[in-house]
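Sorry to interrupt, but I need a hand with the structure work. Could you write out one complete protein record for me, on any chain you like? Could you add the entry underneath, on a fresh line?
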Amino acid sequence: MRGTHSGDLAELSASELLALYRSRRASPVEATRAALARIERLNPTLRAFSFVAAEEALAQARASEARWQRAEPCGPLDGVAVSIKDLILTRGMPTLRGSRTVDPAQPWEIDAPATARLKEAGAVILGKTTTPEFGCKGETNSLLTGISRNPWDPSKTPGGSSGGTAAAVAAGMGPLSVGTDGAGSIRIPAAFCGNVGLKPSFGRVPAYPLSYFGTVSHLGPHTMSVRDAALMLNVLAQPDARDWTSLPPDGRDYTAGLEDGISGLKVAWSATLGYAKNIDVEVRAACEQAVRQLSELGAHVEALDPGIEDPLEITCGLWFMGAWTLWNTLTAAQQTLTDPDFAAEARLGSLYTALEVQQLHLRRGALGAHLRQFMQRFDLLVTPTVAVPAFDARPAGQQEMTPSSLLGWTPFSYPFNLTQQPACTVPCGLTAAGLPVGLQFVGPMFGDALVLRAARAYETVRPVPRPRLG
């Protein structure tokens, strides 16, 4: 199967590649080689991948090419290159979780649900993307893999904890990647790197093993386009009995109705959620311009805060307790090898009493109930994704660990992990320095299809940008 496409296949989305495969204008082998060439050229600088399985990926691509030659693709992502965040188990590849405490020489015999579904759909698995240790923070650096960097400006962070995932997609190292999101870890790096990132409703994408950080942790797509995110969610949302918290399959095709627009939808626009301070001027201006465009697309937009207090204390309390729980699975020798930021989180978690933890859960429940009632009045809530553009990339352990230093600069992401609502970020502009800005669409619980539809409507007036790569 010899393709005739003359452009750089690494710049194309999954949907575009699949169309080329169907018309035999490009092949999975060509597309995989293009992605691997990008990895070879850019990964030494960006450190987006912690492990690359080049030969295995090419073998999968050749098998896919044979299926396309017979016009018998095995699934909806047949031949599309995908990467997997290094928190997610992948058979035959080490899952080191960004940590020097994990032995890479152990057998790797299990596919997590997300990995298994992607393989069943015919995706070509390129390798594992970098994460801070145990996904513990919103920037991607670790003692194991060093500092990951942003394709738009390598002096800046790609965000985290799915920073390698974000950098890979933005740099054309495969159009799809799977991320995790416990306080914004899909949406933060997607916003910083100018991609589409979807945190589905909790339980929509099954997980195994479940996160030590509990029911704030979601899995979801990180892509070049909204259509790709919908296509990928179709695959990832398939059931897996290993996750007892997962939702029953809803039978939806998330690409259906994607082009229906947002005319007539009721949208609440909140620039601060009522509590966020220190929002970058350029970020706010870009988001306000995007909201005007939503009105032009026919949405009924009302500027209104949802009437909540900053849940930073709830998020960080539960997060630090998760770190303390995980810390206690490590031996004393392993504990000496950990990232100072993770160790600091665990120490803070050790200070909570059982009563205080239960009180945090009760406050979380009240927040969730409040926002469910608020969403009865609106179809969507729209906010900035992150309050700031990407900041300087830096090594681990560069600042005192506090709730503010951990998450204070991303006040729009973590509330919706606590409430488990679907949320999607799409690019809505660039700063004067050329760094992406993200706009966040939040839906009611189980409103994943509506969130994608709104994000797609906005994407039609402002397509996802691509960085200029050196």
